[in-house]
Write a structure and sequence with these properties.
Blueprint lengths: L2 H5 L12 H23 L20 H28 L5 H21 L12 H21 L15
Helix pairs in contact: 2-3, 2-5, 4-5
């Protein structure tokens, strides 16, 4: 089966034929992605100051309100991505490779965005965690995509509850 057919299968079902490591790797991935999403979406400062240590700005009207609003909306998008990945894990496991491909593309877009609109040290107290995490997610996604595309000879991983 070709890579394009593994990423975009003709039949989207719950039959995953890639490595079990990638399957469990997606479950593990959802932990930091869920935390990140909820922080950006729900925290009063959307994590911009309290976690990313971005300095606050002054002015009238308060520019921080706009920054928090956009960061919170971004957290909502991230939460949708987590829901999509969870749906893939539960119902449409044939799309696990596509989920990792989306993680790689999203990480790449974050790198491009950071290059186009860089934050310099005067914008933060310490380098934000996302500055490092993006590269970690990119590498992790690439390894997991490779593992998810490796077709096993055994029976597919259809239902974890059955002990497969």
């Amino acid at each position: 089966m070709s890579i394009s057919n593994r990423l975009l299968p003709d039949v989207v079902d719950n039959h995953y034929r890639g490595s079990r490591i990638a399957f469990y790797g997606m479950i593990i991935l959802l932990i930091p992605l869920t935390f990140r999403s909820l922080v950006h979406f729900l925290k009063e400062d959307s994590g911009v100051n309290s976690i990313a240590t971005i300095v606050t700005f002054s002015g009238s009207p308060d520019p921080n309100t706009v920054i928090y609003m956009f960061s919170s909306q971004w957290g909502g998008y991230q939460l949708l991505f987590v829901f999509l990945m969870a749906i893939i894990l539960v119902r449409y496991r044939a799309l696990i490779p596509l989920g990792f491909a989306f993680l790689i593309v999203e990480s790449f877009f974050r790198i491009v965005s950071g290059t186009l609109h860089p934050l310099t040290p005067e914008h933060y107290e310490t380098r934000p965690p996302g500055a490092y995490a993006t590269y970690i997610f990119l590498f992790y996604g690439a390894v997991m995509l490779w593992l998810s595309l490796r077709e096993k000879e055994d029976e597919p991983l259809n239902n974890v509850a059955e002990g497969d």
